[in-house]
Each structure stands twice: as structure tokens, then as C-alpha cells.
Amino acid sequence: MYQVYPRSFADSTGDGIGDLPGILDRLDYLVDLSIDALWISPFYTSPLRDGGYDVADYRDVDERLGSLADIDRLIAACHERGLRIIMDIVPNHTSSDHRWWREVLTSGPGSPAWARYMIRPGRGESANEPPSNWRSVFHGPGWSRLILDDGTTTDYWYLHLFDSTQPDLDWSNPEVRSEFRDILRFWFDRGIDGFRIDVAHGLVKDPDLPDMDYDSIVETDILGVAPDAPYWDQDGVHDIWREWRVVADSYDPPRILCGEAWAPTPERLALYQRPDELHTSFNFDYLAAGWDYERMRESIDATVASHAKVNAPPTWVLSNHDVIRHATRFGPTEDGSPVTKPTVVDDERGRRRALAARTCTRVRNSGCRRFSIFPMTLAKIRCGFVARGPTPVVTDVVFPCRGRRMSRVTASALRGGRGFPSQMSGGTSLSICNKTMTLRRWSSTDEPWRSGAPNLLSDRVPWSGWTRHPRAFSPYDVSPPSPGTRLSPS
To answer: What is the pTM of this model?
Structure first.
């Protein structure tokens, strides 16, 4: 799945802002990257105080980015090319420009408008203290005093776990739940294949609003607050996803729900993937492991074991729009400390490690149930089956999945260039087990150029036996290690 932030991806009008027609113009380029799905960050109407994650209208396109007609054309073009298209949805909060919040500012306590949001009376004399001491993920207080449009300062406060212009919705209100089910249907009816759900773990808050002991909490570098805070990963959030799953399953084919769920443990994360809830969630525990063999192995083992209990496929996340890209995160600083904030790093080593991590990720996605991952480098693995263009680079790593044909996989984007698809899907595999590397291949009747290859996955083939794609312009000839060579970290 390839994430596109529309405002910075491609500008079709020359106004300096990327837009939906720009994505459409570059769609064939994205297809060449061999992706299966396109995830588009929010393009809803928004004042852009949080990059589009502050939504003012969930049923419209920001006029700076295009129109509903443009998204309809993009959906159709994706489907013509065999791509699924995934949208972001932001259900935890709205923009303060949303019509619901505008109604709050012109009404009073007890009104239906107030009941849609986390608005609570203040504490202390004259309600001068917030209902709890919760802090915002963006730092600073998590509550703000509610001041109406006419200038009246009320005795009430509203919760905003993010920016103060992003008031949190109250998901105990049936009207809120009904509204978002209708929003899902609005986009599913237009052909959207699924949603990536922003802050999927944060919709339900502890109704007692307990204070937090921040002095005893070590802030995380990714989440900013403790993952077991009383507004994260509450059990009641699963009822919401069961309701959404009913909506998604009512379509043919069923639509996809993917959660951004920052759960404190792999076991808690797996609960979001129970058969009647979300289809999958981003595995941030693996992302947080960084370039640490023991930590990576612990995350992989725990994730695979916990997901097996609910019969759900695990996911493996290396980067997204909220996290420094892994080519930088894996580039150690001078003192070797983890990279969690922009800093000077060993760029070349970061890229090698990022490619190795991507390769390992593809192995895990191939259906391998349990094995030991050992960090690798480009110099060690040297698995460039096919390369195109003036500069030979490692491009594709392709694996079988339960005997079925898989989509192509490219890793060349780490060099900053476009992808180099190879069509080598379905017939080659690389497995890393007990710190050793095994390469295999087999024949396929629909790929005559590979005829004569062994027809059993158990047949080992040395590096010299690899069949290169006939359309490659410049094969990347390397001197590979012998099968079974032990790999060491770098």
C-alpha cells in the first residue's frame, strides 16, 4: 500500500498545491511501483490547521484539491488498473469549522449540539479548572474553556487530545455513531474500497476522567503520552468497530477497515483484528522496535502469536506520515543512539538498513509463520534480481504466499527514484531462518521464460541458477554468497 499526501504529491494546475487530478495524472507511475492499493491522506474540506486531519466536511473535497467529480474519476481509474483506493477517515474529532461545532458556539448546555462533543463542567470555584489534567498529544493542556460566539465564557470545558481547534467527539452519543456510519456509506457507495481509521484507539474515554500522574510517566517518542492513558485503547472502542464492520461487510465485495491503533502491547492490538472488527491495524510495536535485533524479534514473536489467537494477519509498519522515515530512523547518530527526531545521521547506513528491513518485512508478509529475523545490509544480501535504468540498483524481492501468486514488490524507492517492476511474481522466494539465507525457485506454466526450473519449493537452487527477467535492461550481476551463509548485522 502506497501512501499519498495529496497536497505535496503532484500539482496539476501550477498553483503550488498538489491535488487529486495530479494523482490521476501520475497514476501509471504509481502502478509501475507495483503497489496493490493507494492510501490517500485526507482531502476533505479543511482549514488545514493539522494538515487536513481537521475535517470541516466529511462528505466533500477541499476545493483547493479538486471536487467530488475528481475523486470519482480517480476511483474509476484505480479500479481500471487493478488498484484499490483507501481513504483516511478522522472520527476522533472534527475541525472547529465543522457545522456541528458552529452549532455548539451558538447554543447552550443541554442542547443536542453540546451532546455531540466531549464537553464537561469545570472544577473548582467558578469552574476555573479543567475536568481533568489530561494533556494534548501536541503538548499543552488537553482541555480548553468553552467560549461562545457572543463572547460568553461558560463554566464548561471541551476536550481536544490534539489541537485546540479539533474538539473531540463524544462517541457515547448515538447520533455521532449514526452520522459516521452514514459517512462510511457515502464513500463506499462512490466506490472507495476502504478506510484507514485515524486514532482508532482513542474514540472512547474513561467516563470518570481520572487525573494522570505525569511525573511517573515516561513520554514515548512516537505517541507523546503513555499508551495506557485513560483515553487510549478503552474496551468500549471495540463496539464501534463492530458496528463499522457490519457496514463494510454489507457491500459486495466487502470493504476494508484498517486501524491506526496505538495499543500498549501486541496482545491488545490483536483485539482490534477479531473477526467481527477491523480487518487489520498498523503494527506500531514493530515500528517502535527500531534497529534492535532483540527488540525486533520480541515484537515479531509476540505479534505473530497474538494475531494467531484471533486468526488475523499481522502487519509490519516501518514509516508513515507521523514518523520519521526508516531510512533516517535507522541511520545511527554519532553516539549510536536511536533516531526519533530530525538529526544528523549516517545516511548511507540508514538506507542500507532500511532496505534490509523492507526485505525482512516482505519475507514476513509471505506467509512465514515463525522464524528468527537477523538484521542484514545491502552489501550482505545482494538480492538484485532485476534492475532497470542507467544505474543498477537492488529492486525487487518477491515471495510466494501459500502457493498463490503475489503482487510485485519493489524496494528501489529507498534511492529516491521511481520503481523498477520486474514481473518476477509467484516463482521465487527468499527465506531467512535461524540467521541463514535460503533462495528457492520453481516453474510456472504461465511464465514460459522460467520453464525448466525445479517444480518443488524444496529444491534448492544456487544463486547462479536465478532466471532473470527478459525485459531487464541491465541485470545487476553480483557475486553472491553461497547458500546458507550466516549473516551478520551492520
So the answer is: 0.72
